[in-house]
Design a protein that fits this description.
It is found in: Mitochondrion matrix. It comes from Orbilia oligospora (Nematode-trapping fungus). Keywords: FAD, Flavoprotein, Mitochondrion, Oxidoreductase, Transit peptide. Its cofactor is FAD. Pfam families: Acyl-CoA_dh_1, Acyl-CoA_dh_M, Acyl-CoA_dh_N. The protein is of the alpha+beta class. It folds into three domains: 115 residues, Orthogonal Bundle (Butyryl-Coa Dehydrogenase, subunit A, domain 1), CATH 1.10.540.10; 104 residues, Beta Barrel (Butyryl-CoA Dehydrogenase, subunit A, domain 2); 149 residues, Butyryl-CoA Dehydrogenase, subunit A, domain 3, CATH 1.20.140.10. Helix content is 51%, strand content 13%. It has twelve helices and eleven strands. The strands form three sheets. Strands 3, 4, 5, 6, 7, 8 and 9 form a seven-stranded mixed beta sheet that branches. Helix 8 packs parallel to helix 10, helix 10 packs antiparallel against helix 11 and helix 10 crosses helix 12. The chain is globular, with a radius of gyration of 25 Å.
Length: 432
């Protein structure tokens, strides 16, 4: 029996007819519908890419932000003070450790975690976004991903409620972008079986002055290992966590150092199955993903405030600033990059959920979104003129905070290096 072989041209013709038919059917389905209108707040209809659960989570975040969080933002920033009750409120709302399944956590999608920053939920970033990262993505994520089952059951449910506060200690006074050179050490306690002693210092650690649970990375016999320090177990004089005061950015965040002088840690509190920088970098990638969302949320708040100001502020024969093309260009450029940045976040989130994420993707969106949000915030700040100096207009605070966001969890130049070296390495390998 002979099989009939279709000529390539016939095959192409058949595919072309199918495509034409599909397009015609689509045209008929949409015929009679009202033309879609452009909404600058959602320029490319990102919400159509979201699941119902993700939209519901965004609505919950909006309600919490507007009613309970935003009124405290400006006072907290002025006073450089963080209200610990915020964490309990977030725990009640299911925001802490949100992507973790089980252990009292919500178990939502990675995209759902990010959409909390969409407008008008963007205001969450002003006060609490890096609280999400430091507590949920870093300390809770480290316990969930690398801790024993006993550690997960002991700490995660209480941390998810906001009753226990966590921090993540990697950066050191002499080593920020080069964690492989860390000086913090762990050694076996010669006098007590099953105990380690940790010594060294960490700095720029969010929540360290108030943390009950401290995740610390230290070198044990030359290998980077992760340890959980429970503050209540530390003998007097072994652990100090002074606050870093007089910051010019993220003033509503409590930041400090960790000084350890032979802090005793039971062997059960060391993460057993992860060595080297793979552990901390995996945790940081989760935080960087959240930062990519948060910076876009902050940028959208800058856009909204600059737009409103340019419409109400009248100069030169009573014309609103928004009438002038230089002002329009600043706004158009910012809206475009904010839209593209959010779409990139959704795409990376979906890949993350499907297990198709490469670390370089995180570097790309963290670098790009932090860089663009800071650049546009500075341009939009110019629209306010001298009024930008007054904190009641909020734009100055955003600029200061976005500078910090560009720096922490991997400075922008470091992520640039990661992206280009990966590209060159792939090209050079394929050329051999």
């Amino acid at each position: 029996m002979f099989r009939t072989v279709m000529h390539p041209r016939s095959h192409l013709a058949k595919r072309l007819r199918s495509s034409i038919l599909r397009i015609e059917n689509q045209r008929l389905r949409t015929q009679g519908r009202a033309a879609s209108t452009f909404d600058y707040k959602d320029s490319l209809q990102l919400r159509n890419l979201l699941e119902d659960e993700e939209i519901a989570i965004a609505s919950t975040a909006e309600e919490y932000s507007q009613q309970r969080l935003l009124p405290r933002v400006l006072a907290a920033y002025r006073d450089e003070n963080f209200d610990k009750s915020i964490l309990r409120e977030m725990g009640e709302a299911g925001f802490l450790g949100a992507t973790i399944t089980g252990y009292g956590c919500a178990g939502v999608s990675d995209v759902a975690m990010g959409v909390r920053y969409l407008p008008p939920r963007r205001k969450l970033f002003q006060y609490a976004a890096n609280r999400y990262d430091a507590k949920s993505s870093l300390s809770m994520g480290a316990i969930h991903d690398f801790g024993t089952e006993e550690l997960k059951e002991q700490f995660l449910p209480t941390m998810a409620k906001g009753a226990l506060i966590g921090c993540f200690g990697l950066t050191e006074p002499n080593h920020g972008s080069d964690p492989g050179s860390m000086e913090t050490t762990a050694r076996i306690d010669p006098d007590r079986e099953g105990m380690y002693l940790l010594s060294g210092s960490k700095t720029w650690i969010t929540n360290s002055p108030i943390a009950d649970v401290l995740i610390v990375w230290a070198k044990l016999d030359g290998q980077v290992r992760g340890f959980l320090i429970e503050r209540a177990r530390c003998p007097p004089g072994t652990l100090e966590t002074p606050a870093i005061k007089n910051k010019t950015g993220l003033r509503a965040s409590i930041t400090g150092m960790i000084h350890m002088d032979n802090v005793p840690v039971p062997k059960e509190f060391m993460f057993p199955d992860v060595e080297g920088l793979r552990g901390p970098f995996a945790c940081l990638n989760n935080a960087r993903y959240g930062i990519a969302w948060g910076t876009m949320g902050a940028l959208e708040d800058c856009i909204e405030r600059a737009r409103d100001y340019s419409l109400s502020r009248k100069q030169f024969k009573g014309n609103p600033l928004a009438k002038y093309q230089l002002i329009q260009k600043k706004l158009a450029d910012a809206v475009t990059d904010a839209t593209f940045g959010l779409l990139a976040c959704v795409q990376v989130g979906r890949l993350k959920e499907q297990g198709l994420l490469a670390p370089e993707m995180i570097s790309m969106i963290k670098r790009q979104n932090c860089d663009r949000s800071l650049a546009h915030a500075r341009h939009l700040q110019e629209i306010f003129g001298g009024n930008a100096v007054a904190d009641e207009y909020h734009i100055g605070r955003h600029v200061a905070n976005l500078f910090v966001a560009q720096t922490y969890e991997g400075q922008s130049d470091i992520h640039s290096r990661e992206c280009i070296l990966t590209s060159l390495h792939t090209h050079l390998k394929s050329s051999v």
